Amino acid sequence: MSRAGERGQVAVYAVLLFPVLMLVLALVLAVGTIEGLRTRIRSQLDMAALTATQALDPTALAAGEPPRLQAAEAERLAREYLERNLAATSDALIATPSEIAAAAAIMVSNAPGTDPITGAANTAPTVSIRISAPARIPLLGLAGIAPVVTLTIDGSASART
Amino acid sequence: MRASSRTSRRRGERGTATVEAVLVVPLVLVPVLLGVVVFGRLSHTRLVLDAAAAAGARQAAVVGGDSALVRSRISTELSDGGIDPGRARIVVEPAVAGWGEPIRVQVFVAEQAAIPFTGTWAVPLEAEFVTRSEVTR
User: I want to staple A60 with a disulfide (CB 3.0 to 4.6 A). Which of A8, A65, B27, B87 is the partner?
Assistant: First the structure.
């Protein structure tokens, strides 16, 4: 009687607890991978937005006025440098950098106000970017979940004097 | 008689459980937990590398290419993050960039993931940013 009971315990330990432990471990590592990737892509977005703020209107600068962004040129630069920077994480992404950059929402605002993308209060000319990047997370596949996660990420940069 | 035979059986099974615990804990659980720690350390290195490469890329845009300023900026970021800058390889190309030209900054560190009872793996880590020269030449 007692022998059967203890055998049952060992079986529960071996058959149930161990796979559960491994599953939890795979999920922990998957979440870590996702957040790490999100952080990397966010800094790529920041770099693209920062580069786009180079598109300052030279006539405003020459007249000694506050800096003003050239909207079309800033948006072009944001997409170009988004694509160039996303190339560093393209292994983990399902869409190509140029597809993600082409589909990105980019706002160039010169007037102060609430940023439509980040929701922050803009006090200077600002370029803000939002992308949707489908990422491949193989660890989620190990845990029996579809291994694709779509990351939606914002980034912005302002031109200040 | 009956009582003593039951006691001996129980004792025998207790021994089995102890042997299982002695084998499972060091061979499975400890490597798994240490693996999580090693993973965390590698993630930390990754983040520091990214921050260093981003700061280096900004500096490279301002000076228009490669310079001692760019490299010292990256080294400072790395040592602030607890990574010996001597272990890092820095690539800035092109060395001289005119206004509006792209500049690529890469930082490489060869890390090792060593998990006791399991093995050691070489983990090459890399961070890369592309920026645009702000210097008129």
Answer: A65
